[in-house]
Amino acid sequence: MKEKIFIIENKKELAESLESILSKEGFEVHKFYSGASALNKIKTNKPDLILTDLMLPDLSGLQLCKEINETEENSGIPIVILTVRNDEYDILNAFNFGCADYITKPFNEKILVARVKACLSFKSDKNYQKSHEGEDENILKFAELKINPERYEVYVNKKFIDLTPLEFKLLYFLAKNQGKVFNRSQILEEIYENYYNQGDRSIDILVNRLRKKLEDYGNWIETIYGVGYSFKFCTH
């Protein structure tokens, strides 16, 4: 079955161009020219990924992210922002609202396709046998925290923790190097493909989001003031 992508773009010519690019890659593509029309369609026809502009005629791309992520049945849909806005505030704000990736216009077609496929691949891996944990020699275990890099899964007390690709990469990188201290630039280079376009504040926001999701185990990600971050396992 073809993977389904919703394109939300109010510029008709660009929407048709994106449809052509993604259709050639074998995706089932649906175009929308407003956020409201896409949200209404999601109720009966759930996509595998959403590609949306930030600036829509009715509601913003961030409002769209918020509404989708607040609905339990839709919160797992990866949302990729495609926009001309490239300042640090907009990028950080989008990730803070739960987008899976952020691509600026003008874009390279091959890179766009690769990043869309990466988001879909992460979603597929994360949902694979999600109902149970597989024992694997590569799994990192810290008390009741388990991190499975093969399946991109994280469990706390046997409860599945739903992380974005960047949140998972951040946790796995720090955890597999437990005890070591990394500055923000080192972390950026490790988890971002185009890290040179990101600011140090993006790491701080990711850490805060990750800590909240890990709840009591979030304090294992320690802030090393004046330097960066470290994962330090401690018993409760």
Shape: globular
Spell out the helices and strands N to C.
Answer: EHEHEHEHEHEEEEHEHHEE
> What is the CATH level 1 assignment of the largest domain?
Alpha Beta
**Which fold name is given in CATH as the topology of the largest domain?**
Rossmann fold
Count the helices. How many?
8
Distance between the termini: 46 Å
Beta-strand percent range? 15-25%
Radius of gyration: 18 Å
The residue fraction in helices comes out at 25-40%
Taking all residues together, what is the mean pLDDT?
Answer: 85
Sequence of strands across the biggest β-sheet: 2-1-3-4-5
**CATH-level-4 superfamily name of the largest domain:** Response regulator
Secondary structure category: alpha/beta
How many beta strands in the DSSP annotation?
12
Number of domains: 2
Largest sheet: 5 strands, parallel
Provide an overview of this structure.
A hairpin with a 2-residue loop joins strand 8 and strand 9. The chain has 2 domains: about 120 residues, Rossmann fold, CATH 3.40.50; about 90 residues, Winged helix-like DNA-binding domain superfamily/Winged helix DNA-binding domain (Arc Repressor Mutant, subunit A, Orthogonal Bundle), CATH 1.10.10. The longest helix is centred in the middle third of the chain and has 19 residues. It is of the alpha/beta class and about 240 residues long. Helix 4 packs parallel to helix 8 and helix 6 packs across helix 8. The protein has 8 helices and 12 strands. Helix content is about 40%, strand content about 20%. The strands form 3 sheets. Strands 2-1-3-4-5 form a 5-stranded parallel beta sheet, sandwiched between helices. The chain has a 4-stranded antiparallel beta sheet with strand order 6-7-8-9, with helices on one face. The chain has a 3-stranded antiparallel beta sheet with strand order 10-12-11.
